[in-house]
Amino acid sequence: MMKRRTFIKLAGATAAVLGGGGIFFSRRSCREESLPPKSASKPIGDLIGSHPGVIVGLAGLEPPATMERVKEAVRSAAETATDFSWLSKGDTIFIKPAMNSGNPYPATTSPKAVSAMIRLLKEKGAGRVIVGDMSGIEHVKLSPDTMKGSSRSLAVSCGIAGAVENARGELFFPEEAGWKAFYEEGPPGGSHWKAGVTMPKILKEVDHIVLMPRCSRHALAGASLGLKAAVGYWRTDSRLEYHRDAATLQEKTAEANFLPVLQEKQRLVLTMADKVLTTFGPDKGYIVTPETGLVFASSSVIAHDMVSLAFLLESRRGTPEVEKEGLDDPYTSQFVVKWANRMVTFMLGGLCEASKTQNLIRNDIKTIWDDRVLRRGFDLIGGIPNINLKEAGYNRIPASLVRRIVDGVTLYPSK
Predict the structure, then answer these.
(1) DSSP collapsed to 3 states, 13-27
(2) Which of 290, 335, 344, 395: CA 20 to 30 A from 220?
(3) Helix/strand/coil for 211
């Protein structure tokens, strides 16, 4: 018989994964915590030099993150990562945020960053700028004949809807267009997907895609960064296969980012991370507020995620529970991960599909090289990219923080 304590821990953790009521956290784990002070600023070039590679633009963001500061940091990071030569006057752009729930940033993408990006794109000549995502199964379920829940209402709750409207962008939520508003695209050869991945047809109509994730732990996948954000495109049937065939969930995460429509149209990936969700995730957890936050951007989702994960791991050092546990997340045991994923599969496909669910193995991440999602991404691009970190002109970043990020994306552990 399951011990009562184990059952309570599982029930609370599962509820948090699914966005429900209870959550197994101490009160301290739900407040914000600042990281220790960093050393004085020093240009990135003095630390790693100038070399060819995939550019990741970094801009510092000190609190308070006023709208003006966010606009400057977003502009600076984005213009460091790309020259926007891909953007012609009047082009239509789709911005894909991470909006699994209606919880505020950093459980979802920063509304301020979304607003800043819309304004920047319009300034660069964009015509329509459309912002959209489909929230998680615990909040929204689309079937061939019915729809339960509303991503639109969650966008209002987390502040993204208001930010989009104020910046004169447009909102789009795939489930509102119905089951037939999706199409299938085949993932790359050698994929772990059995069926094609369902994507919203609106992506065929736009000229470009800008991905705007957040920097967060994820109880099931390990982390919720750029690659994981692709789940928000998918229809219920793709999400069912993803969670039911859980032995390769992390590999399928990476593979779904290599669909033709994303390879052809995704131009920029940008994250604002002056707040980081360092435990549990995707909807709840411990929030760390670094003394110097970052905005980072790249044309490569793989390069972006290498830096994002390095910053997540660095930020986790400011989490008391994580420090005590030696960087293991105290809320996501293998037992919790396995059964929480089965619960998600049940919600997606019912009892019969849940009975077929493969065991999901916890993705322990102590360095970026431990992340199965990134490792599959490296396979798909033919190796580990050479990262060219470039400090954007806005707000110098402390040298000690830069050094730890550099180490995180360059030092491959010897085994």
Answers:
(1) HHHHHCCCCCCCCCH
(2) 290
(3) strand
Model pTM score:
0.88
How far is residue 23's CA from residue 161's CA, in Å, rounded to a whole number?
A: 27
Instruction: Give pLDDT, residue 19.
Output: 40
- Helix residue spans in 333-389 (DSSP H): 334-349, 351-355, 372-381
Q: What stretches of 82-159 show up as alpha helix (H) in DSSP? A: 111-123, 151-158
Buried-state track 140-157, b at ≥16 Cβ within 10 A, e below 16: bbbeeeeeebbbbebbeb
The 8-class DSSP code of residue 398 comes to B
Q: Work out the number of other CB atoms within 10 angstroms of the CB of residue 191.
A: 20
Place of tokens 């429900």: 20
**pLDDT, position 397:** 85
- What is the set of domains in the chain, with CATH numbers? 33-410 (3.40.50.11440)
Residue entry with tokens 């972006």? 304
In order of 114, 289, 351, the CA distances from 200 in angstroms are: 20, 35, 27
> pLDDT tens digits for 363-386?
888 899 999 999 999 999 999 998
Residue located via tokens 């998680």: 136
With b for 16 or more beta-carbon neighbours within 10 A and e for fewer, the 278-298 pattern comes to bbbbbbbbbbbbbbbbbbbbb
Sign of CA dihedral 318, 320, 321, 326: positive
User: For position 52, what pLDDT does the model report?
Assistant: 63
| Residue 403: predicted pLDDT | 86
Q: Please tell me the number of Cα atoms within 13 Å of 366 on its side-chain side.
A: 6
Contact 375, 305 (CB under 8 A): no
User: Which residues of the chain are under the pLDDT cut of 70?
Assistant: 1-52, 321-331, 394-395, 413-415
